[in-house]
């Protein structure tokens, strides 16, 4: 379930750079207290055809503090939570093989103490034909924890548009109903008028017949 959530959230990130089949994207930065949150971190290889192996480390610097704490380490297939504040709350949601390119972790039961700076570090070894190449990539996420999720502008606009459409459709239905009613009423009046004319014609014809009989 969380794997599905991970890929769903990753697909909603803002794409910043692409390399072949891998896309480097920025993590979301606002979490809601008491809920879970996915810390995104992606580092794509420049050459997909080159085999590699990577480990990932996460460090955390609480708000208004100077030093980072080492909180998580992943070296496939082993994942280790290294700080007691995150014990039983961090779960690996990244690449499930040694060639790690997605280094995301999922924080369960977010608290206000989780506000701060998170640093994701990739230690990658590229197995080039003639030599090994070591690459270190660091990325940071400034996380803010709020009590209630802030509604995005697009969501507000969508809701307003929805209500406007509902009102417009209701007005349109009223107009259509009035038009249909008037059309039915006009047809009814026309039928009544034709019946009256027909009845009047029959009455005149009957009167003429009566006058003819009297004349004889």
From TrEMBL:
<dbReference type="GO" id="GO:0086002">
    <property type="term" value="P:cardiac muscle cell action potential involved in contraction"/>
</dbReference>
<keyword id="KW-1003">Cell membrane</keyword>
<keyword id="KW-0393">Immunoglobulin domain</keyword>
<dbReference type="InterPro" id="IPR013783">
    <property type="entry name" value="Ig-like_fold"/>
</dbReference>
<keyword id="KW-1133">Transmembrane helix</keyword>
<dbReference type="InterPro" id="IPR027098">
    <property type="entry name" value="Na_channel_b1/b3"/>
</dbReference>
<feature type="transmembrane region" description="Helical">
    <location>
        <begin position="160"/>
        <end position="181"/>
    </location>
</feature>
<feature type="signal peptide">
    <location>
        <begin position="1"/>
        <end position="20"/>
    </location>
</feature>
<dbReference type="GO" id="GO:0005272">
    <property type="term" value="F:sodium channel activity"/>
</dbReference>
<keyword id="KW-0812">Transmembrane</keyword>
<keyword id="KW-0894">Sodium channel</keyword>
<keyword id="KW-1015">Disulfide bond</keyword>
<dbReference type="GO" id="GO:0019871">
    <property type="term" value="F:sodium channel inhibitor activity"/>
</dbReference>
<dbReference type="GO" id="GO:0001518">
    <property type="term" value="C:voltage-gated sodium channel complex"/>
</dbReference>
<protein>
    <recommendedName>
        <fullName>Sodium channel regulatory subunit beta-3</fullName>
    </recommendedName>
</protein>
<dbReference type="Pfam" id="PF07686">
    <property type="entry name" value="V-set"/>
</dbReference>
<keyword id="KW-0739">Sodium transport</keyword>
<dbReference type="InterPro" id="IPR036179">
    <property type="entry name" value="Ig-like_dom_sf"/>
</dbReference>
<comment type="subunit">
    <text>A voltage-gated sodium (Nav) channel consists of an ion-conducting pore-forming alpha subunit functional on its own that is regulated by one or more beta subunits. Forms homodimers and homotrimers. SCN3B is non-covalently associated with alpha subunits and induces the formation of alpha subunit oligomers, including trimers. Interacts with SCN5A/Nav1.5; regulatory subunit of SCN5A/Nav1.5. Interacts with SCN7A/Nav2.1; probable regulatory subunit of SCN7A/Nav2.1. Interacts with SCN10A; regulatory subunit of SCN10A/Nav1.8.</text>
</comment>
<keyword id="KW-0406">Ion transport</keyword>
<keyword id="KW-0732">Signal</keyword>
<keyword id="KW-0472">Membrane</keyword>
<dbReference type="InterPro" id="IPR013106">
    <property type="entry name" value="Ig_V-set"/>
</dbReference>
<feature type="domain" description="Ig-like">
    <location>
        <begin position="34"/>
        <end position="144"/>
    </location>
</feature>
<dbReference type="InterPro" id="IPR007110">
    <property type="entry name" value="Ig-like_dom"/>
</dbReference>
<comment type="similarity">
    <text>Belongs to the sodium channel auxiliary subunit SCN3B (TC 8.A.17) family.</text>
</comment>
<keyword id="KW-0407">Ion channel</keyword>
<dbReference type="GO" id="GO:0086091">
    <property type="term" value="P:regulation of heart rate by cardiac conduction"/>
</dbReference>
<keyword id="KW-0915">Sodium</keyword>
<dbReference type="GO" id="GO:0044325">
    <property type="term" value="F:transmembrane transporter binding"/>
</dbReference>
<keyword id="KW-0851">Voltage-gated channel</keyword>
<keyword id="KW-0325">Glycoprotein</keyword>
<keyword id="KW-0813">Transport</keyword>
